[in-house]
Write a structure and sequence with these properties.
By secondary structure, the chain is an alpha+beta fold. The chain has 4 helices and 6 strands, in the order αααββαββββ.
């Protein structure tokens, strides 16, 4: 629990300290492409494909306050989520900073789920992502948290 709080404070501090981006640049385009691919997998309900976007030592910190480690844990989380009928996920990039190895991004997310009566309802929030650039140039999530 203490590590989770520290990690959330650290990511929040990094994102607050980041200057606002003046316009889209190469980092923005890389993250937007990763988000688009992630959204496609999510909207197909493909938990295995979602898990493949995470590094082997990834930490995933969902709004449930669980600490999920690695692609296997991510796949289990999303398998359960998809069984509840969640779909139509979007990620809209707010800002990104980074270098040739690590990128830190913040985004607004939204998804369609079901309310307590089972009716379709739109949910949204913000997310923080730490991407690790792979040898082939692709991005994988090293840390992912959202509210």
């Amino acid at each position: 629990m203490r590590a989770t709080c520290f990690l959330n404070l650290f990511i929040s501090g990094v994102l607050i300290a980041l200057p606002l981006a003046a316009g889209a640049g190469p980092l923005d385009e890389q993250v937007k492409a990763a988000y688009a691919t992630w959204n496609v997998a999510f909207n197909k309900g493909d938990a295995k494909a979602i898990a493949s976007f995470y590094t082997s030592d990834a930490s995933f910190l969902p709004a449930t306050h669980d600490v999920i480690e690695g692609p296997e844990g991510v796949e289990k989380f999303y398998t359960h989520l998809f069984s509840s009928g969640v779909t139509d996920h979007t990620l809209d990039l707010l800002r990104v900073v980074g270098d040739d190895k690590i990128l830190v991004a913040a985004a607004r997310w939204s998804v369609t789920g079901k309310d307590a009566s089972g009716a379709a309802k739109r949910f949204d929030g913000v997310a923080a992502h730490v991407f690790e650039k792979q040898a082939d140039g692709s991005l994988k999530l090293k840390l992912h948290t959202f509210n």
